[in-house]
Design brief:
The complex is a heterodimer of chains A (249) and B (382). Chain A is α/β, with parallel strands linked by helices and 249 residues long. Helices cover 28% and strands 27% of the residues of chain A. Chain A has 6 helices and 11 strands. In chain A, a hairpin with a 2-residue loop joins strand 7 and strand 8. A 4-stranded mixed beta sheet of chain B has the order 1-4-5-8. Chain B has 3 domains: 5-115, Butyryl-Coa Dehydrogenase, subunit A, domain 1 (Orthogonal Bundle), CATH 1.10.540; 120-228, Butyryl-CoA Dehydrogenase, subunit A, domain 2, CATH 2.40.110; 233-380, Butyryl-CoA Dehydrogenase, subunit A, domain 3. In chain B, a hairpin with a 2-residue loop joins strand 2 (139-143) and strand 3 (146-157). Chain B is 50% helix and 15% strand.
Amino acid sequence: MKILVPVKRVLDYNVKARVKSDQSGVDLANVKMAMNPFCEIAVEEAVRLKEKGLAEEIVAVSVGPTPAQETIRTALAMGADRGLLIQTDADPEPLAVAKMLKAVVEAEGPSLVIMGKQAIDGDNNAVGQMLAALLDWPQATFASKVELSAGSVRVTREVDGGLQTLELDLPAVVTADLRLNEPRYASLPNIMKAKKKTIDIKSPDDFGGLAVAHLTVKKVTEPPKRTAGVKVETAAELVSKLKTEAGVI
Amino acid sequence: MAFDAETRSQLLETIRRFVSERLRPIEAQVAEADAIPDEILDEMKALGLYGLSIPEAYGGLDLAMEDECLVAMELGRTSPAFRSAFGTNVGIGSQGLVMFGTEAQKARWLPRIATGEIVTSFALTEAEAGSDSAAVQTRARREGDVYVLDGAKRYITNANRAGLFTVMARTNPDAKGAAGVSAFLVPSDLPGLSIGKPEKKMGQQGAHICDVIFDGVRVPAENRLGAEGEGFKVAMQVLDRGRLHISAVCVGVAERLIADAVAYASERRQFGAAIASFQLIQAMIADSKTEALAARALTLETARQRDAGASVTLEASAAKLFASEMVGRVADRVVQIFGGAGYIADYGVERLYRDVRIFRIYEGTSQVQQLIVARETLKRGG
């Protein structure tokens, strides 16, 4: 079976995000970019399924600018077999991405789509759900365990207050949560081998085009700065401040 | 092979991440236990670090010298003991075989060296043959189709993990000095070969050096590396190459130390201000940074020349001399910037101060490098 893994190029999670001075978005000029951590987990899960002999081919797909090829290359170095970049300098909103991914699914015919539950830039947590809805496929989001068998997949989900286990018929969409696995470091020989794997470069028009945007970003602001704390002299003073000023006890 | 920019940056980025996420957090633990956890060694193997310099045909990465130096600089940003674990497979333990091995010898050993299944060691130094390395006394007597080895080697890095030694032994007792020495590939499981207890060292805990004792070890003649009497040539060419790698490690450790110093000096307040704002502290940072940049430039320029096919004996020795002395001075200044904290184990700086001391000694002392630089400069007429 074939697994499709959508991956997104985002600001490296180690880099402190800075807002552009005109508050139109996060400043991405000359900052380090990397694969979205949840996408990495999704790639890792797909590779593990392939290593167990449960999948034959892994296709990594990304929607983004030319450098997103590097992100796909990382997925190839981790173990994906080939890549597909839908190249666009626009920053398409979740529904537009989901619609193009639907067209990719129809062209590629995967039995399973594994993707990150959300990207750490927009934190929308939407594309996986939208894709499943557009395809009319079952979905299991926030996966912390994935067990694949012929014709179905059993997914343990992290939900508020506990775990939920779902059994889905294939084909299906699964989105990865943080504890699904710990992604490997691509080995140096595999980084070199990844150079020989193919990445097809396509345009949004090959997959139905960029859908009309429904959202406009009005303003992006930094979180409020933390104000300085207060030092107390005694435990009694602390308790009294917690009662009277903080009102927490 | 040389890389395109994208592959190189991906390679270095992977190593940078591995160093900061997996190695740096356990530096103190490794030093305390004097051991690198097996799990980490396995990860280093899986990453491909043991095969950096092994030809691609045998499963290695066959890095160009410049790329190997860039990798070594990244690995220098953590305890040098980690690099030492696979350092012999990249350098002195494998390169004799890569440079002088027959096709059959390479096919037999290199694939397992590249994966790290076999750890290699380089056995040249003896009690009476240190800088005077041509004074090797370990004997190799030919008996039919075997050589019988007798003698003892000293301070052999990774000896207690090694599966294969490159051993320099005297095949011709009548030829004094270098001429009578030959090189042998000696598997560690041959009868008569034993390993001493790991020495207690000043630094780099987690990396081990031991004596290796040969008591009538019968080595098949097919395991001789190069012709009889070529051993010293093998040893010198292997060491020549290793000098650039060591230089790069020195640059990496210096860069790490400078980053630690800047972080500390920016935070530590005295006289009502961060100590980084004081010019006497700034002078130490400026001197350290300038010297580290100079060592980086010399190392990479020499590596590029070597990749282009030039003979770099002089430059590689100059790089090793300068980079190892440089990192010693940087470590000393950084301890000074940390003040009392620099003398306390918890901050890690005193550990690196001890760790870097060996760089001025092994794979040719600073004094040996000076002799080589002088000799080659005189030969070239300037």
